[in-house]
Known about the structure:
The protein is of the alpha+beta class. The chain has helices spanning 11-22, 27-31, 50-64, 70-76, 85-91, 96-105, 136-158, 201-204, 213-244, 253-259, 264-273, 278-295, 300-306, 312-323, 327-344; strands spanning 7-9, 47-49, 115-121, 124-130, 164-168, 188-189, 195-200. Helix 13 crosses helix 14 (312-323). 32% of the residues are buried.
Amino acid sequence: MGTWNVRRGIGSVHLLVDLAAEHGVPAHASLRGSRIAAERLEDPFAEIEASQELTVVRNLVRHLGDFPAIGLEAGRRYRLTAYGIWGYALLSSRTLRSAIEFGIRYLDLTFAFSRFRAENAPNGLRVVLDDRDIPEECAQFLVERDAAAAVAIQRDLFLRPVPLQRVSFRFPPPAHADRFPEYFPGPVFFDEPAHGVVVATEWLDQPLPQADERTARLCEEQCRALLDRRRARTRVSEQVRQHLLRPQAVTQMETIAAEIGMAPRTLHRHLAAEGTSFRRLVDEVREALAEEMLAHRMTIDEVAERLGYAEASSFVHAFKRWKGVAPGAYRQGRSGGETRSSAKR
């Protein structure tokens, strides 16, 4: 849960929405369920949670998942300038090796969903992409996107492609396997133990064209401060969620504000800065708990009572607003889907 609450810039969502629009998917379809208003895409300082971008990714995969190489096409659009101060820090790094080390250290300032790590390899450095935390339906798209974006960044650092010793993916060869050489300047292998690329030592230690030690130090200070601010803001909404998830939790803002040591007005201001509100958090938690309780065959009256509704009708009304259907119909639909899935197995 915490991974997807990390704050990030809105630039990646802007790129994804534009990509989808080029393939005939309107912005409102790409943004559905993300709680991101289309007009916010034009604000270069807007921040969202990673979970909101993940919703946009799910929408894109739902609409364009069968489009050949859509993940690779997305990744190529992530130029270094899209990353703000993190990108400038990499540009001013002394070598590619130091840029990789810095990039991984401040990975939470990027748009990646894969977790990157660096390992020594024979005659080079292996950069591994770990996708264990990514939902299965988005994993291949995001691994292709993140890997292609990493290669695009290396190209921007040197102003030319950086040859790779080896490019590996855990998934089997996709239908668009012949497209991978367009994006990765090195031999590509599938059905491998891990996702990753290997960069040769002679490239790792070459000075970068725009290296500047003073600028690099200044950028790192700004990156550290930005990461601290984002993490601090994330903790407020996460604290509220944790309080709301407790058994028999109260849902009054004044009570929870007091429990986490804030005045209600201060809590409201912090949550607004994170792009959310107390009421929205209450709805999110109630929606998630309602799904879980309905899956465990609790009655609608029991669910309503557990979630703090005075009347079952109020819960039914809220659930229709969340899901578009009544709780009973939702449960029946899930049961039918599970029955069909079991039949296929």
